User: Fold this.
Amino acid sequence: MHHDPIGFAFMWAAMSLVMMVPTVLRPTARVARGSRGRAAAFLLGYIACWFAVGIPAFALTGLAIGSTVALLACWGLVGLWQMLPSTSALLRKCQSLNAERPALLLGLRQGSWCVGSCWLLMIATMATVDRFALPLAVGIAVMVGVAAFIMWQKSPRASTQSIRMVGVAVVVATV
Assistant:
């Protein structure tokens, strides 16, 4: 991809759809209550948040792919981000959605909470795939692994302590 704007836009959109939509299947079902229209409105609001951060993500990813040191620093920041109380608060909001409000509004809220908790991880993932020009299958495997992690951390089973321990492990791995 070599960080061209068109390639990045395509990959960001694909990654947003393929990686992030599965992480909100439970909230989508809760909001939809059997209505396809409510499900579509919720997902539209949710994915709009991810598309909106695509332009700043392009700039930040460009910084991260500048060198291996910059990429490692980005991953180190991912680890630190996982340990922040604000990240924990956003993840708790992702887990507790009041499904009685308008679906589009709920999607925008869920999307903003998810962007707030996962944006740096998405940038580091894109930068890694881009920096090392990973073959498609390897890039997809990386994205599937990151998506699985995001699904886990947004689930009620993930404790704040375990999420923070992952952050510690990421920081240690980058040193």
In short: The chain has one domain: 5-174.
